[in-house]
Structure formats: C-alpha cells, structure tokens
Amino acid sequence: MPQLAAAQVADYSPTIVFNCSFGQNDEAETSRAYEDLRAKLMESFRTSAFWRSKPRFAEARKRLKTTLSLERDWDTYGAESPNDVARTLAAKILDALEADLLPPTRLMPSSEGGIAISFVEGENRAAIEIYNTGEVAAVTYSAHSEPVAWELSNVDSALKNAISDIRVRLAA
Q1: What string of DSSP letters covers 112-170?
Q2: What does the pLDDT read at residue 11?
Q3: How many separate helices (H) and strands (E) can be counted in the chain?
Q4: Cα–Cα distance for residue pair 144/80, rounded to 1 Å
Q5: Contact call for residues 52 and 3 (beta carbons, < 8 A)
Q6: What does the pLDDT read at residue 155?
Q7: For 23-77, what is each residue's pLDDT tens digit?
Q8: Distance in angstroms (rounded) separating the CA atoms of residues 27 and 154
Q9: Contact assessment for residue 14 and residue 42, using Cβ atoms and an 8 Å cutoff
Q10: Per the confidence metrics, is the pTM higher than 0.90?
Q11: For range 87-105, the mean pLDDT
C-alpha cells in the first residue's frame, strides 16, 4: 500500500547579492556595512509573509503529486483514491490560495474520495474538501463555536469568497 512520504521542503530564501561602492576600499568598513545590510535583508525575509508561505505551498504541491500513486483502499477502509478531477481542482485552489497568501497547514487525500486542504490557526480550523465528483465544500470550526459548512457550487466565482471567509474565521 503506497504511503505519503514525508517530503523535505526546499529552501525558498532569496539569494542576496549586492555591490557596494565605498570610495576608498576599507575592508573593515565594507565588511561591517555588508553584515549590517545582510542582517537587515535576512530579518526582512524572516518576517515576510510571502517568503514564509513558500515552503508550505511547496509541501502542499509535493503532497498533491504523491496522491497519483494511491490506489483504492489506500486507507484500509475502502476509500477511493483521488482522481484527476480532484487533483486538477486542488491545484487550481492552491494557486488561488497562494495568490491570496493563505498557505494551507496540510494537504492530504480524503477518505471521502478526493483531496482535503486544511488550515489551523490557534484553536480555529478550516478545510476545503475537493471530491472526485468535482464538488467542493468548505468548513470552519473551533472549540468555541458551531461548525459552518458550505458548498462552493461554482468554484471559479465562489473561491475568492471562501478564501476570505476562511481567513476571517481563522483570525477570530
């Protein structure tokens, strides 16, 4: 039975290259200036939502590819493996999530037959479930409120609203 392998996440940190012109070449001065600038750039990288989201999207796409090798009964409970319809929709949803800087916590095959994309922020949770039929549903929940679930009847038009709703409910 194929297993989802733990993937190593690529380093998406930006390459920092710059040239400095200081007139007289005082190595002590240029080294200090270089280190100060490098430290500021690295701090900017560490606090950037854009750069911090890149490894999470890379991991989600890697896990999406691993669903190709799953067979029926991959969970030993008779679940259908994700099909091309679910994978194509999941890739499209990942693109929209990345454009809106809402990285998923995890992407995994669904025991319902399809793919689940989940989000966790503190005690708040959300998921987007993409079924093999092409249907898409979303849910948000926490320990302090009732779950809210809805269907994305037209993925193209409803996805932006769903992403916005998930972001608001995760931040609550």
Answers
A1: TTEEEEEEEETTEEEEEEEETTS-EEEEEEETTEEEEEEE-SSHHHHHHHHHHHHHHHH
A2: 59
A3: 4, 5
A4: 33
A5: no
A6: 83
A7: 555 665 667 777 888 888 778 777 777 788 889 999 999 999 999 999 999 999 9
A8: 61
A9: no
A10: no
A11: 96
Q: Where are the domains of the chain?
A: 47-171
Question: In the numeric block, which tokens belong to residue 2?
Answer: 């194929």
Could you give the CA distance from residue 102 to residue 118 in angstroms, rounded to a whole number?
11
DSSP, res 105: S
HSE of 77, CA atoms in CB hemisphere, 13 A: 5
Looking at the chain, how many residues does it have?
172
Question: What is the sign, positive or negative, of the torsion defined by CA atoms of 44, 102, 90, 95?
Answer: negative
Under 8 Å between Cβ of 70 and 86 = no
Q: Distance of CA 130 to CAs 45, 93, 104, Å?
A: 33, 9, 14
Residue 114 confidence (pLDDT)? 97
For residue 41, what is the enclosing H or E element?
helix 27-47
Give the amino acid at 27: E
Phi, psi of 83 (to 5 degrees): -100, 180
